[in-house]
Amino acid sequence: MEPDVLGLVAGALTTIAFVPQVLRILRTRSAHDISWLLFGILAVGSAMWLWYGVRVNSLPLVVTNVITLTLQLSIFGLKWRYGRGKRP
Amino acid sequence: MEPDVLGLVAGALTTIAFVPQVLRILRTRSAHDISWLLFGILAVGSAMWLWYGVRVNSLPLVVTNVITLTLQLSIFGLKWRYGRGKRP
Fold it and tell me: For residue B47, is it within any domain?
């Protein structure tokens, strides 16, 4: 398989995991049980993978991490709106 | 920052997220609530990132995905042992 195609399929699979979490928060309008720390660590990690992807000219890494970072920042925004602090 | 160092730090951050899940299953000896599908998709994704990393000679991608794949397969093994089917 062409490396770029391989990387893009890999990226689609590891990105898709975040979609149900975003949809769940939108549906329940609740994000009290979401950990700032976990998503904070993952977002910093994705930002660094993106930076690495730019440095080594990897299209799949750049595309994948732009999308995962967007999803993770959406989860942050939704948590800010729907669930700071513990569940009431 | 040196690209390899950047990638290895990125990989450490996105890998570390799986460690608490493994520790939790070992502590509680229960994995009923773990989704085969989510971890299945992630494991196939990690295997493909590993393959992509080999093809493009990326040390950080290879190192990171060997570790995440090992953690994901451990979660599979633990689920096989501690929690097939619904919670009793």
Answer: yes
Contact state of B56 with A7 under an 8 Å Cβ cutoff: yes
Cβ pairs A/B, distance under 8 A: 77
> What is the domain extent for residue A37?
3-82
Residue B50 within any structural domain of the chain: yes
| Domain membership flag for residue B7 | no
DSSP code per residue over A48-67: HHHHHHHHTT-HHHHHHHHH
**pLDDT tens sequence for chain B (88 residues):** 799 999 999 999 999 988 888 999 899 998 888 888 888 899 999 999 999 999 999 999 999 999 999 999 999 899 999 876 666 6
